[in-house]
Amino acid sequence: MVMRNETSGTQTRGIVELTLAMVLSGTLGIFVVESGASPFNVVFFRCLFGAAALGAYSLARGYFTGHGLTLKKLGLAALGGVFIVFNWVFLFEAYEATSISFATVVYHTQPFFLVVFGAVLFRERITAAKFGWLAVAFVGLVLVSGIRPGDTASLKGLGLALAAAVLYALSTIVTKRITGVRPHLIALVQVLVGLPLLLPFADFGAASRLGAGWGWLAGLGLIHTGLMYVLMYAAYQKLPTAKIAVLAFTYPAVAMFADWAVYGHHIGLVQALGVPLIVLASLKVTLATARTPRVRAAGPAPRTAAHAPEAASPAATRSV
Known about the structure:
By secondary structure, this protein is mostly helical. The chain has 14 helices and no strands. The protein is globular.
């Protein structure tokens, strides 16, 4: 009885931690827009402030001792960082081209690209069930896009959000191959990679004129890259895959509500019909993949399922 109560209490804490992390994820778009910075500047300073937060936390927890990083693992983490950093750039560009709601929903096609890449790169068989859910998601995507002839903004936003989802899937595949390293350190490597990678694209002249925008940029790094990741990693230790997969959808729900509450943006009736199709199909594919013994191509990046004392769950989450 005591063991059962302890398990229940642990899962309750995990639910609270992951729910809070997903709520924070849902507000990320607001911070991006309110900063007033270009997508490249946003990502550069997110990496800068995020690296400071993750580095300080890892140092305080002693994670640099016995870190488990080798040249090969460091190279894989860096490659995953290249994908994840440009994934952020494309997603934030999609916010500008359309809306936070639209980009977020389209971005949640990530699990389907994982399935496709698994089939192409690793010769993994796509089951009839997964193929069916892919078809459902495609129908949902068509409905959500709501693109009309001449609607170049929506078309551009759709392409950018899909490109972000593809890069996220590639980062997931690469990062999942890293074992024996704490996820905090992998994430730290990935944001550090973003600094020299984005330096040629950063506009420091424009950044110097941001004023109050600096507060929003700092929030992206300290809150959405530091605190949020720490909460997620802590929750992953306590929760089973199914609960993680379900709670992950708090993120798009909060993002859509925040977009409506702050900017008055909302998707139309026809588009709204596509949202549950994408959500349901994504959840089914995520859970089916998590139950498969082979999990190399399923999981979050940089929130990776590293096999370490504080390993993350192999469930695929879709936070940014």
